[in-house]
Amino acid sequence: MISVLILTYNEEVNIAACLESVRWSDDVVVFDSFSTDRTVEIASKLGARVVQNRFVDYGSQREAARTRVAYKYPWVLALDADEKPDPQLVKEMKAVAGNSSCEHTAYRMRRKDHFMGRWIPHATLYPSWFVRFYRHDLIAYSPRAVHEYPQIQGSTGELPGHLLHDNFSKGLADWVGKHARYAKLEAQEDIRSLRMDSLDWKGVFSLEPVRRRRALKQLSFRLPFRPALRFCYMYFVRLAILDGLPGYYYCCLLSFYEYLIVLNMKTIRLESKNK
After folding, report:
1. What is the percentage of the chain residues whose pLDDT exceeds 70?
2. pLDDT (0 to 100) of residue 221
3. Cβ atoms of residues 135 and 73 within 8 Å
4. What are phi and psi for residue 79, nearest 5 degrees?
5. Of 192, 203, 86, 206, whose CA–CA distance to 147 is shortest?
6. 261 burial via Cβ count (<10 Å: 0-12, 13-18, 19+)
7. CA 275, CA 199: separation in Å to the nearest integer?
8. Out of 31-35, 132-136, 190-194, which region has the weakest mean confidence (pLDDT)?
9. In this predicted structure, which of 67-76, 103-112, 207-216 has the lowest mean pLDDT?
10. Are 162 and 84 within 8 A, CB to CB?
């Protein structure tokens, strides 16, 4: 009824638990970027189909997963290896997939992000919505370095259930290293956007969550003192202060991430001037 797609690279710590959470599907595909650990071995032993594809960027990888895989079912749930659908979400997706007259071609869902052993809703901007359940023949991904968005043919609905996300399952050092890589990619995308795209002011106030999130991101990299503003916005405006010490520490990490983006943007511009 539903196919499951899991994108992986060196996810031996997470892949078994992720696969356990989708045992209800008889078509689980692990789309791997040539992991160097035991990810492929574990996934194969647990019955998943493994397809490997050389990673170029996140948008291209998701598009390759959409076009290179022969899915058993038209509806696909796309997961990262550190995510698991809760029982309510599974029930909702099955109801959609079993409805032949469904009006939507894709669905957004919320995610509960955990840090230091607890859910931190304020520090992680809950509820943030992600398109992860879709008709794979009616969406497409453009090449994008990071934070990719699907182009959807048709309307998009929302499901009340949640993805459970443990962003620190491989430890703090892994999170920092991953976000250092993200920062470089994000800096490249931000510079490209500043050159080519005008700010979507209407999107800043849009009721459509994905458009509003993208517009706010566009606004953020046009502002001065970006790292400090990110911390203040998250901690005081979005009330991460209510998440206790985990919320404070997480806001510090996000501020550090913004600093890395700004520093990478300055470096890229300097290198461009010196060419």
Report:
1. 95
2. 65
3. no
4. -125, 155
5. 192
6. buried
7. 29
8. 190-194
9. 207-216
10. no
CA 87 vs. chain centroid, Å, equals 20
Residue type at position 34: F
Q: Is 31 in contact with 5 (CB distance < 8 Å)?
A: yes
Helix or strand run (H / E) with residue 78 = strand 75-80
Residue 14 in contact with residue 170, Cβ under 8 Å? yes
The average pLDDT across 168-185 equals 95
Task: Answer for the pair 230, 179: CB distance below 8 angstroms, yes or no.
Answer: no
| Gyration radius from the chain CA atoms | 19
State the Cα–Cα distance between residues 7 and 72, nearest whole angstrom.
17
Model confidence, pTM: 0.88
d(CA 31, CA 123): 30
What pLDDT shows up at residue 201? 64
Name the one residue in this structure whose structure tokens are 């994905």. 210
Distance CA 44, CA 49 (A): 7
Distance CA(251)–CA(120), nearest Å, equals 11
Residue range 41-54, pLDDT digits in tens? 999 999 999 999 99
Give me the phi and psi of 160, to 5 degrees please.
-70, -20
What's the pLDDT tens digit per position in 184-234?
998 988 887 766 666 676 777 787 776 776 777 667 767 788 899 999 999
| Distance in Å from the first CA to the final CA of the chain | 54
CA 102 to the chain's CA centroid = 25
What single letter denotes the amino acid at residue 198? Answer: S
